[in-house]
Amino acid sequence: MRFHHNLVQATVDALHNIFNDGKYADQAIQKILKRDTRWGSRDRGFIAETTYDIVRYKRLYAEIANVHEPFKPADLWRMTAVWIVLKGHAVPAWEEYYNTPERRIKGRFDELSKNRVYRESLPDWMDQLALKELGGIWEKEASALNKQADVVLRANSLKTTPAELKEKLQSEEIAVSQHERFPDALILKERANVFMTQAFKDGLFEVQDAGSQLIAPFVQVEPGMRVMDACAGAGGKALQLAALMENKGQIIATDIYQSKLNELKRRARRAGAHNIETRLIDSTKVIKKLAGKMDRLLIDAPCSGLGVLRRNPDAKWKLQPEFIDEIRATQQDILQRYSTVVKPDGMMVYATCSILASENENQVQEFLKSEAGATFELVEEQSLLAHRDGFDGFYMALMKKK
Ligand SMILES: C[S@@+](CC[C@H](N)C(=O)[O-])C[C@H]1O[C@@H](n2cnc3c(N)ncnc32)[C@H](O)[C@@H]1O
């Protein structure tokens, strides 16, 4: 493989923004990619994938390169040299790579790989917490969460079918495959910028992981129902709920951030979803007004995001144990307060993109034992794990109001 100095320089700059300035990896990469309009898709792919790879394996690469945070530019260059050697490529004869100790790098890799926290590049606290909660399967899950995630689309049934979309994408030179477990999902055979396609501009699909696509159907909505999507964010699940409801009935999408709800409205227009109404949660009144009125409630709760590390590897370095404690309290509070909107015989789904029992099953059990939860019964639980199911990690519980 032939390396280009300006592309590695761009990678080093992106890493600086992520590691030293605390920027989110996706945003830092998007910004760097705007730097040179002459870069083609291969160049862009190189910068994005190399940056993500080094973010994923930060602890391992930093240890091998013997560098420490905050990283100086020379340290980041050393980490890219480690990446090049471990990928089996010849190190370019550039000044930054002068005297790269290739044999030592390989030796250190073999030595450090015996220890999971280095091999899978994990903070100690995260490794211990996940081991405590997941037991023996953590080993395999940690490794699966370090694999690059597929790009998965959800065909928007308000406008198209998966078969029709597949053809349209093919005409735009994007090849996709289908998966029997995920009926609306199309998986890209090769990475591409799907947001540039006409099919996207026409609202024929959304980018949504296959695991995430199982949550809205789990809510068992029907056309004409009144449904609340309590933690709607920018609306990934709300748009899918609208499609499942064939635009009939009402979806009340709430969040504590107006900016996310604005983005939801924009996406809904593109998708042709007309039955979504957004409401900002800026006081307790919003929930009180809806008490006992909803046929269905979806709580797609804020969580640690440990199930989606393949997509957000920088979360390994940004997450703190205190945040997970706080988010657990928020999850229980949301369950307690929002569950009041469900009418008798109505149903509620609690979902997260976490793989920790303390954010999932244990939260549901705690809720069911509480006063608010005593009027609900658990119908079904489902969880997805990256190593077992091949997609992101998710949890969902369906509860019925007695
Ligand atoms: C997992 S994300 C939602 C993703 C979204 N449902 C989707 O499918 O794209 C969780 C959301 O909960 C919101 N949130 C956090 N605390 C909340 C609260 N107390 N009430 C409502 N939403 C809240 C966050 O702003 C965030 O958008």
Q: What does the secondary structure layout of this molecule look like, with pairings?
A:
Elements: H1 5-20, H2 25-33, H3 41-56, H4 58-65, H5 73-86, H6 102-112, H7 116-119, H8 124-134, H9 138-144, E1 152-155, H10 162-171, E2 176-179, E3 182-188, H11 198-201, E4 205-207, H12 215-218, E5 226-229, H13 236-244, E6 250-255, H14 258-271, E7 276-280, H15 285-289, E8 294-300, H16 315-318, H17 321-338, E9 342-352, H18 361-369, E10 376-384, H19 386-389, E11 394-401
Parallel strand pairs: 5-6, 5-8, 6-7, 8-9
Antiparallel strand pairs: 1-3, 1-4, 2-3, 9-11, 10-11
Helix pairs in contact: 1-2, 1-3, 1-5, 4-5, 17-18
The structure holds S-adenosylmethionine.
InterPro entries: MeTrfase_RsmB-F_NOP2_cat (IPR049560), MeTrfase_RsmB-F_NOP2_dom (IPR001678), RCMT (IPR023267), RsmB-like_ferredoxin (IPR054728), SAM-dependent_MTases_sf (IPR029063)
Protein name: RNA methyltransferase
Keywords: Methyltransferase, RNA-binding, S-adenosyl-L-methionine, Transferase
